[in-house]
Amino acid sequence: MARCDLCGNDYQRAFQITMAGRTYTFDSFECAIHKLAPTCEHCGCRIIGHGIEADGRFYCCAHCARESGVTAVVDHA
Asked: Is the pTM of this model over 0.85?
């Protein structure tokens, strides 16, 4: 069995994700999200969708980007 890098659970169905040359082991997608997903610069939530990147910062949506001063984004065209 393999131990989750976030919660420490020893789980027979653990899986691995390689990101930026480093391999992590997780027992659930929830743990993988908490460890690896970027955080929105405005509201602090984990970004599990496409999100928005502007000036090297990540936002979960156009609203949060606009609230942080990014003007060239829209929710939909």
From this structure: no
